[in-house]
Amino acid sequence: MAGVNLPQKGKQPCWKSSKSKPNCPFGARLRRASKGRKGYQGRAERSHRTNDEEFYISCLRQMKTVAGFLRKAQRWQYYYDVERPHFGARMDGKAPVDELRGAGG
Prior knowledge:
By secondary structure, the protein is mostly helical.
């Protein structure tokens, strides 16, 4: 993908070095998982693995432009959140959006 400006090491969004404030776009906050809640890190790692296996590995070589990649990434995000069944803790094959709808009442 020619012309893509990737962040330099230490300049990733929401990355905080010991000498700088976090750079978080869209009002995001950088937070640590609570002590004793080791499962949070495992969930994040599993999410990253799923993205790698089901999205990046299958499509990156096909992408010719940044715009094409962004369109594909947006479709993937919709599929992952709205259509794809999840089988983690208490998900029972529901999509995340279904779980959110149920939590809202």
